[in-house]
Design goal:
about 750 residues; alpha+beta; Phosphoribosyl-aminoimidazole Synthetase, Chain A, domain 2; seven-stranded mixed beta sheet; 28 strands; about 25% strand
């Protein structure tokens, strides 16, 4: 038997104080199996011990919410007896260590979170953050992550319909891979994870258990150092073809009434799934480790409980239904084993070779796990912008911006994803939000992921607000009524007060925006310790990145708006109030090499009013194209609309003022829309009645963008713009040798 030394305890990520809590909970020393179970259940990844106290501040309820945080995914009513089930999760550390498998298993894990609740997955999205494009490892990381997402999603038959990609030096040593899945279920066929029924059988289904991914949850709860390559064995290995079989087998069994509770084996594998099921149901659990399907010889209970082998589920069945369930899983060529039973002890008891190898009360593992209100300091407000530069050539600045890493076309990425499988994708990648038809109906789900990390670093409260507001705008711009959000909170080391201050600030801003825009958070994930230790032991943290995934509903998907200019001669309008905010803008960074100033403020009341107006006009069919204003300001918004429709625009500013403030400011709450002359008067009257500011910008023309300014005309052709916009990724990535 392994002696539990302070070194062994430290290797398991437990502090001396936490180990004292283990001793108190057990009334004795743990054995190695028990220590391993405490270690993963009390990791940041599983327990949220540094974030739980603050996550409670987020709005999580509303008339549209069927199930909020606490289950595998959030559930929202979409009418007609149907629900959308969705969640976003991180797989950051594994993707840095082994980008293909890290990203692939991130997709597999989030798919299981959704279909374990009874939903058929209908869409995948992702939010990716990479370091500097010229960093020596970045090309390899980008290629591996993109191939991993595509390789898994394409094979499992779920379309990857949207996402976002940012670059910044802060992610050089710790990239972010956040995956989101949306599914659709019947509201009377939603499955939950709380175990019940003393004596009910506990069954294991899916793939066999191997030694891959052991300590994955613990690794995901620590920052990186120079030995990250040594952590490669903690990265799981995925098989999308098995996942596809698992989806079909689970949904087939779910069509019966045999399942009492179901939980996927994600982080911490068999440990977390069994602990969560038993603790949520207020029952005990007894498992026979000899009955666990194993693909390797001589596996120990420690290895079986901590393995994160993929494509596995745990279920509680009604008694007497085992044979029926087994027949289904055998038909789909999957493992099926009865490995235990529900008890009334409130304890987790594991046996192996006829001996008890673990006996732990469940309370301390779950609800009574450590929770810390860590010291934090608010982020100091940034200094106002001084010595503001001017744009001497708007067209030249626009051309450079459109070819820059954060704004260049992502076609190289999304063309590697099957975004049409299932034949329900209405709007493909490249617009404000993806739109997926709810199969067999006229309804459409609009889906987006959003966050502007540079805003969050400069002002976490305002950045948190903006992340929600941007998601609201993207859904609105396609005509969808925003319903709810999921979050993926990516931050550095929470034991540093300044990092914890970023987290607290972002939560404050998000909570305010969720309440004001009626977009509750119904699911999510926290990923801390996203930083790399230097040689001196100091940490280099990522930008605070509270990635937001959001969904909205279209009553009729045919009415969804797109960003592409449709015809020449349409009037181009700005909807919303402009402010000329250049702080933290991409123009300031990419053209002038400066990352300073405050981010643009978010007026939530104006956001809601303007958004409601835009949706009403889309529903009426008054707008021929719509695009929200974000990174790069109005100039980039116009360029993206022009490239999407292969139609240009003649821009005539409404009044005097520096060109940079007019065209590159990243003011919030703005949309650009085009309107046919025949609908213009009705549009202007409706805007006046709604109290929404609208301004004419110009008209659509042939294939060029012309800025008619007081200081002269500036012009760029769509051919030149497209070459710059489409050239970045193919030039960066070159051949497939990036994977080697």
């Amino acid at each position: 038997m392994t002696e539990i030394t302070p070194e062994i305890v430290a290797q398991h990520g437990l502090s001396p104080e936490e180990y004292d809590r283990v001793l108190h909970a057990l009334g004795r020393e743990p054995n190695l199996v028990e220590l391993g179970i405490f270690s993963v259940m009390w990791s940041e990844h599983c327990s949220y011990k540094s974030s739980r106290v603050h996550l409670k501040k987020l709005p999580t309820t509303g008339p549209q919410v069927i199930c909020g945080p606490g289950e595998n995914a959030g559930v929202v009513d979409i009418g007609d007896g149907q629900a959308a089930i969705f969640k976003m999760e991180s797989h950051n550390h594994p993707s840095y260590i082994e980008p293909y498998q890290g990203a692939a298993t991130g997709v597999g894990g989030i798919l299981r979170d959704v279909f374990t609740m009874g939903a058929r997955p209908v869409a995948n999205l992702n939010a990716l953050r990479f370091g500097r494009p010229d960093h020596p490892k970045m090309r390899h990381l980008i290629a591996g992550v993109v191939h991993g997402i595509g390789g898994y999603g394409n094979c499992v038959g779920v379309p990857t319909v949207g996402g976002e990609v940012n670059f910044h030096a802060a992610y050089d040593g710790n990239i972010l891979v956040n995956a989101m899945t949306v599914g659709v279920a019947q509201t009377n066929k939603i499955f939950y994870s709380a175990a019940s029924g003393v004596g009910n059988p506990i069954v294991y289904v899916g793939s066999k258990t191997g030694r891959d991914g052991i300590h994955g949850a613990t690794m995901a709860s620590a920052d990186f150092d120079d030995d990250s390559e040594e952590k490669r064995p903690t990265v799981q290995v995925g098989d999308p073809f098995t996942e596809k079989l698992l989806i079909e087998a689970c949904l087939e069994l779910m069509a019966s009434d045999a399942i009492v509770a179901i939980q996927d084996m994600g982080a911490a594998g068999l440990t977390s799934s069994s602990v969560e099921m038993a603790s949520k149901g207020g029952v005990g659990i007894e498992l026979d480790m000899n009955a666990v399907p194993q693909r390797e010889e001589g596996m120990t209970p420690y290895e079986m409980m901590l393995s994160e082998s993929q494509e596995r589920m745990l279920m509680v069945l009604k008694p007497g239904r085992e044979a029926e369930a087994e027949a289904i899983f055998r038909k789909w060529e999957l493992d099926f084993a009865v490995i235990g039973r529900v008890t009334d002890t409130g304890r987790m008891v594991l046996t192996f070779n006829g001996e008890t190898v673990c006996d732990i009360p469940l309370g301390p593992l779950a609800d009574e796990a450590p929770a810390y209100d860590r010291p934090w300091v608010p982020t100091a407000p940034p200094d106002p912008l001084h010595d503001l530069p001017e744009s001497t050539d708007v067209a030249a600045d626009l051309l450079k911006l459109m070819g820059s890493p954060d704004l260049a076309s992502r076609r190289w990425i999304w063309e590697q994803y099957d975004h049409m499988v299932g034949a329900d994708t209405v709007q493909r990648p490249g617009g404000d939000a993806a739109v997926v038809r709810v199969h067999g109906t006229d309804k459409g789900l609009a889906i987006t992921t959003d966050c502007t990390p540079r805003y969050c670093r400069a002002d976490p409260v305002e950045g948190g607000k903006q992340a929600i507001a941007e998601a609201f705008r993207n859904l609105t711009a396609v005509g969808a009524k925003p319903l709810a959000t999921t979050d993926c909170m990516n931050f550095g080391n929470p034991q540093r007060p300044e990092i914890m201050g970023q987290f607290v600030g972002c939560i404050e801003g998000m909570a305010e925006a969720c309440a004001a825009l009626d977009m509750p958070i119904v699911s999510g994930n926290v990923s801390l310790y996203n930083e790399t230790k230097g040689e001196d032991g100091s940490g280099s943290a990522i930008l605070p990145t509270p990635a937001i995934g959001a969904i909205g509903l279209l009553a009729d998907w045919r009415k969804s708006a797109t960003i592409a200019f449709k015809q020449t001669g349409d009037v181009v309008m700005v909807i919303g109030t402009r402010g000329g905010h250049l702080g933290q803008s991409l123009w300031l960074r990419e053209i002038h090499g400066r990352e300073d100033g405050p981010p643009p403020p978010v007026d939530l009341a104006a956001e809601r009013k303007t958004g409601d107006f835009v949706r009403s006009q889309i529903d009426k069919g008054a707008l021929t194209a719509v695009h929200d204003v974000s990174d790069g300001g109005i100039a980039v918004t116009l360029a993206e609309m022009a490239l999407a429709g292969n139609i240009g625009v003649l821009v005539q500013p409404a009044g005097p003022g520096p060109a940079a403030k007019q065209f590159f400011a990243e003011d919030q709450g703005l949309y650009v829309a085009t309107i046919d002359d025949s609908a213009l008067m009705d549009f202007l009257m409706a805007a006046d009645a709604a109290g929404v500011v609208v301004e004419p910008l110009g008209r659509t023309i042939a294939k060029r963008i012309v800025f008619e300014l007081a200081e002269g005309d500036f012009c760029v052709t769509l051919d030149d713009l497209r070459a710059a916009h489409e050239g970045f990724f193919p030039t960066l990535m070159g051949s497939e040798s990036a994977l080697s």
